Amino acid sequence: MLIGVPKEIKNNEFRVGLTPPSVHELVARGHRVIVQTGAGAGIGLTDEQYTAAGATLVASAQEIFAQADMVVKVKEPQPQECAMLRPGQILYTYLHLAPDPEQTAALVKSGAVCIAYETITGPGGGLPLLAPMSEVAGRMSIQAGASHLEKSKGGAGILLGGVPGVAAGHIVIIGAGVVGTNALQMAVGIGARVTVLDKNVDRLRQLDLVYGNRISTLYSNAHAIEEAVLSADLVIGGVLVPGAAAPKLVTRDMVSKMKKGAVIVDVAIDQGGCFETSHPTTHADPTFVVDGVVHYCVANMPGAVARTSTFALNNATIAHAVALANKGWRQALRDDVHLKNGLNVCEGKVTYAAVAKDLGYDYVPADTLLA
Q1: How deeply is 369 buried, as exposed, middle or buried, from its count of CB atoms within 10 A (0-12, 13-18, 19+)?
Q2: Sign of the C-alpha dihedral, residues 286, 288, 294, 295?
Q3: What is the mean pLDDT of residues 317-343?
Q4: Where on the phi/psi map is residue 134: left (φ > 0), alpha (ψ -120 to 50), or beta?
Q5: Which of 226, 139, 151 is nearest to 187 (CA)?
Q6: 290 - beta bridge partners?
Q7: For residue 55, with 0-12 CB atoms within 10 Å meaning exposed, 13-18 middle and 19 or more buried, which class applies?
Q8: How far apart are the first and last CA of the chain?
């Protein structure tokens, strides 16, 4: 198979779909890989490293999309990239379709086979291709929140860890999944006062056993969320409904009652966000203010630490890339129900139930197309 890796074009996105070691894995199995010149330059992966791994360099994204049987990316294709996709071509990347009707319509129109990292499941449950970026984003959320609590960034001027004689700041984490757990590790580490909310009492029990009286745990409902948010200096939104739009757990009314200068970090923004006041931002212009509350809603947070993120992502994605290349998409999906769960759009049909429901498409099960 001919596999193509274009340079990412989203704002301040320096990650790359395949690292040189991943290219080597594919080339060693008899596949050809073409990489756009400079695709990894932003994170120190040189063209020479790619050619040494067996890749062929091409000058433009147009050449990648025109030639490749499978395009491997990181972020969802931008409109100009969607326009270059063709029927039957495999697109293997993050998609986050539920809150993005324009991208979904473009992918349906393309006729391409679109496999989303974020809905591929794992043998032990969970979302193993989403997990590494959720780990990064969860840890980054505390860094970003701490930074924007500084007065010069529009925040209240609070040091989250406090100092002797001055109370620590209060961090509220909504959702105790991968994002929330990694945010919690960082929050406890800097000495903040931390409250974690989740609907899974078993998960809260596990966290209580690990962290004891260093954290507070609350069962998540509207009343508990409102009480916690109103006392918070920093709120992290880390909820996820796989493949679907994130639920709006914090209302505009709640935000209006929050402390002035408090900070919201909406890690769920890729799936539409879990704050009613959220909208996507970029690393170039990461925040906006609603009712005196600073909102950090960067849709590709891990892109800020692009080198770490690229290698962590490739660790999770390469095995399925090899399977797709070795077997072709139909046989690879027949052989692996977890990979099959990643198929979101295929040959003009929406094949992921949550996306179809949220955006009003007819749902066509993947098995229908694999028969």
Answers
A1: middle
A2: negative
A3: 98
A4: alpha
A5: 139
A6: 293
A7: buried
A8: 22
96 is an active site residue: yes
Strands 287-290 and 70-72, bridge-based pairing = unpaired
Considering 96, 148, 295, 320, which one is annotated as catalytic?
Answer: 96
Assess contact for 196 and 142: CB atoms under 8 A. no
Considering Cα of 182, then 187, then 191, then 194, what sign does the dihedral take?
A: negative
61-105 residue pLDDT tens: 999 999 999 999 999 999 999 999 999 999 999 999 999 999 999
**Beta-carbon neighbour count of residue 285 at 10 Å?**
10
Active-site residue, from 198, 233, 266, 270:
270
Q: What is the pLDDT of residue 244?
A: 86
Instruction: Give pLDDT, residue 11.
Output: 85
| One-letter amino acid of 306 | A
- Alpha carbons within 13 angstroms on the beta-carbon side of residue 291 total 14
Q: 87 — phi, psi (to 5°)?
A: -55, 135
Closest by CA position to 274, among listed 175, 130, 199:
175
Nearest partner of 95 among 214, 218, 202, 242, judged by Cα: 242
Q: Give the C-alpha distances (Å, rounded to integers) separating 336 from 29, 121, 333.
A: 19, 10, 5
Look up residue 99 and give its two tokens. 């809150």
Provide the token pair at 271: 């799936």
Q: Which residue has the tokens 């991208």?
A: 103
Nearest to 311 by CA among 136, 127, 82: 136
Q: Are 252 and 137 in contact (CB under 8 A)?
A: no
Query: Of all helices (H) and strands (E), which one includes residue 264?
Result: strand 263-266
pLDDT tens-place string over residues 203-215: 999 999 999 999 9
Told to judge if 202 belongs to the known catalytic residues of this protein, a careful annotator would answer no
**Radius of gyration for the chain, computed over Cα atoms and rounded to the nearest angstrom:** 21
